[in-house]
């Protein structure tokens, strides 16, 4: 089956806005509930998206990998938060701890991470050979694949090789990934780096997760200036799908309402669409024992479902 995959970057120049939680939630929802084939690309050096997906489906096996198996959805409004128990290290010898390899450590050992795309070119006389898809893409669960993040990305960002920012786009094109996936989602770092440029250059659309606070506008201003420059310099048809409010309280007070109204009145914001659907605060995601994947919890699953439906509708309206 030949698909016509859409590439979407999740990006904000401000951290702590729930960007990773939203991106992996939408990826998991599309793969499990919408029967879409999804590739998640973790281009953030913090690689939290990688850890969350691997913990859920491979390391701790919190949820089944097959879509045919029922998934236990936790009613976060009824179930109290259970903090994860720390292992008693005194029960394990130091040598035993070292001999327990994690799946991710094996991935690092095999060099199957995003860093393979951004290795600085040491010899300019040789052409850069990009990795094949199977060399860095791993399967997480049915319909969901992942390019794992890597802390070593901080090294590539110091490189003066300006051709690095085209590699993700070229990797997707050369390996015909748009024909393999319905959606390719990219979790970007909250800073202006070679990786944000690379992600945006490779994308058809970008989404801006945003938390309501006094400093929200700073991230949006910086992002829109960077995007405008990139579109002009590279002549790409990159489009913003809109702003999604994240980590919202069920009821916002008058102070938050004023901050929200002030935010939406800013010039860099009032030209953008704002999603009707929002994601609310679900403390289980940050502190619970059942993982950080939002689709594991009833309230956040409902939020993710509504946001995903609205996102798809916006894409269809643009086409």
Explain what this protein looks like in three dimensions.
With 319 residues, the chain is α/β, with parallel strands linked by helices. Helix content is 39%, strand content 12%. The chain has 13 helices and 7 strands. The chain has a 7-stranded mixed beta sheet with strand order 3-4-2-5-1-6-7, sandwiched between helices. Helix 1 crosses helix 2. The longest helix is centred in the C-terminal third of the chain and has 21 residues, at 298-318. It is globular. The two termini are 21 Å apart. The model is unreliable at 85-100 (pLDDT under 50).
The whole-angstrom Rg is 20 Å
What percent of residues are in strands? 5-15%
Biggest beta sheet attributes: 7 strands, mixed
Total DSSP helices: 13
Summed over residues and divided by their number, the pLDDT gives a mean of 87
Which segments are poorly predicted (pLDDT under 50) over 5 or more consecutive residues?
85-100
**Helix fraction bin:** 25-40%
Give the strand line-up of the largest sheet.
3-4-2-5-1-6-7
Distance between the termini: 21 Å
What sequence of helices (H) and strands (E) makes up the elements?
EHEHHHHEEHHEHEHEHHHH
Based on Cα principal axes, name the global outline. globular
Structural class: alpha/beta
Number of strands: 7
């Amino acid at each position: 089956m030949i698909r016509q995959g859409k590439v979407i970057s999740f990006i904000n120049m401000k951290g702590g806005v729930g960007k990773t939680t939203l991106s992996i939630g939408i990826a998991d929802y599309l793969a499990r509930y919408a029967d879409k084939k999804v590739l998640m690309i973790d281009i953030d050096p913090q690689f939290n998206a990688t850890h969350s997906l691997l913990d859920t489906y491979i390391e701790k096996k919190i949820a089944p990998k097959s879509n045919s198996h029922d998934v236990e959805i936790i009613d976060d409004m009824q179930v109290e938060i259970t903090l994860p128990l720390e292992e008693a290290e005194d029960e394990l010898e130091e040598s035993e701890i070292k001999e327990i390899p994690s799946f991710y450590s094996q991935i690092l050992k095999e060099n199957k991470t995003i860093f393979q795309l951004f290795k600085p070119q040491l010899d300019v006389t040789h052409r850069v050979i990009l990795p094949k898809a199977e060399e860095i893409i791993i399967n997480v669960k049915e319909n969901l694949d992942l390019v794992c993040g890597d802390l070593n990305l901080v090294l590539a960002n110091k490189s003066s090789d300006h051709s690095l920012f085209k590699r993700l786009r070229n990797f997707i094109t050369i390996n015909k990934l748009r024909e393999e996936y319905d959606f390719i989602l990219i979790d970007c770092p909250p800073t202006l780096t070679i990786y944000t440029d690379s992600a945006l250059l490779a994308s058809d659309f970008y989404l801006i997760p945003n938390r309501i606070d006094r400093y929200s506008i700073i991230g949006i201003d910086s992002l829109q200036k960077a995007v405008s420059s990139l579109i002009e310099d590279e002549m790409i048809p990159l489009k913003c799908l809109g702003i999604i409010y994240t980590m919202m309280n069920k009821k916002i007070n008058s102070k938050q309402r004023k901050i929200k109204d002030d935010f939406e009145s800013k010039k860099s914001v009032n030209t953008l669409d704002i999603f009707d659907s929002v994601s609310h605060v679900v403390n289980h995601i940050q502190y619970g024992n059942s993982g950080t994947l939002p689709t594991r919890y009833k309230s956040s699953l409902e939020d993710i479902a509504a946001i995903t439906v609205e996102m798809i509708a916006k894409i269809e309206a643009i086409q």
